[in-house]
């Protein structure tokens, strides 16, 4: 085994049984607070439970706080999805995990910024590992 492959295996970046997949895009554009989508647009509260149908999405539980980082610009006939991360004392293992969820599942409780930047999505926005 080559030295670089050993390093990749140790770092967890490569695994022979890895099933990483590029999933279908949910939208061609997204609205973010900045060009890197690194700032939260808003804070929301989950209105109901949502079970993620695949690895692009996150599970949310009713009452959880959700930080919204981007809002996909829906195509005609498509659902409206936002990207964010959940935070809660009871679900600490999910903290920091960012994924999509239906916008209808949350109620925005606080907007951090009104101005947004519309940027194109990339294949990596919908990458599943």
TrEMBL record:
Entry keyword annotation includes Amino-acid biosynthesis: no
Keywords, alphabetical: SH3 domain, Signal
Residues of the signal peptide: 1-20
GO biological process: cartilage condensation
Pfam short name (any one): SH3_2
InterPro entries on file: OTOR, SH3-like_dom_sf, SH3_domain
Gene name in the database record: otor
Species whose genome carries this gene: Sphaeramia orbicularis (orbiculate cardinalfish)
Residue ranges constituting the SH3 domain according to the UniProt record: 39-111
Gene3D superfamilies in the cross-refs: SH3 Domains (2.30.30.40)
Protein name from the UniProt record: SH3 domain-containing protein
Lineage: Eukaryota, Metazoa, Chordata, Craniata, Vertebrata
